[in-house]
Amino acid sequence: MKIKKILVSQPKPSNDKSPYFDLEEKYNVKIDFRPLIKVEGLSLQEFRAQRIEVLDYTAIIFTARTAIDHFFHLCEEMRISIPETMKYFCVSENIALYLQKFIKYRKRKVFFPATETNKVEELLPQMKRHADEKYLYAVSDVCKDNFIKTLEANKITCTKAVFYKTVSSNLGNIEDFDYDMLVFFSPEGINSLLKNFPNFEQGDIVLATLGTKTAQAVTDAGLRLDIAAGTPQAPSIIGAIEAFFKENKVNKK
User: Fold this and answer.
1) DSSP string spanning 127-157?
2) What pTM did the predictor assign?
3) 190-247 tens-digit pLDDT
4) Secondary structure element (H or E) that encloses residue 192, with its range
5) What are phi and psi of 18, to 5 degrees?
6) Residue 251 φ/ψ region, left for φ over 0, alpha for ψ in the -120 to 50 degree band, beta for the rest
7) What angle (nearest 5°) sits at the alpha carbon of residue 141, between those of residues 140 and 144?
8) Is the pLDDT assigned to residue 115 strictly greater than 70?
9) How far apart are CA 216 and CA 212, in angstroms?
10) What domains does the chain contain, in order, with CATH numbers?
């Protein structure tokens, strides 16, 4: 099997020691890095259409730095002053520490799990200890309601509020879409591909994904999934791609 060009739907790594560059050299392939999606903050009009009053809540849930950025940006636009009593529940210590960009960290009440799994479910034990709070869950437009249902089952009041959205990047300036492999990291990446190229035909193009939801999005789109990473058998995308290369004797003479 011959693979000459790969499109990885992420920004180019800033570290020269990225395993992607090792893959290029080892298998004599060219890798282009091009995000297929981008994040945009909601306009004031879009946010207000949700009829959410931030100051009605006593605690905020954050699962990403992006959520923190857009939350405080919109609050500033709405001229909302967040009270000192506000509590913050973050899925990791790194995200919690990022709050220092916007608040006086030591004077606020910030909570995060002891384990760095980045799973919002890990916040449930701490939230149970603060069950009387009124929680606002700051999310993107593609966030599912699964965690909200878990909280409701535990009699914890929580409202989901969209502060930013994921949109497709414009790939119209790609003159020759002549890739032999496409690598995806989210269902939105699949949607962006089909939006930019509505007549896309997979043919011999190899599709690789990271995560079960992204893999399912490929199948749902009626496309063929060739490489699935993010499983116990293939935890990393690089490892899964290299295993595929070895199995199919990619670029072997």
Assistant:
1) HHHTTTS-EEEEEETT--SHHHHHHHHTT--
2) 0.76
3) 999 999 899 999 999 999 999 888 999 999 999 999 999 988 888 999 999 999 999 9
4) helix 187-196
5) -60, 140
6) left
7) 90
8) yes
9) 6
10) 5-36+170-247 (3.40.50.10090), 40-166 (3.40.50.10090)
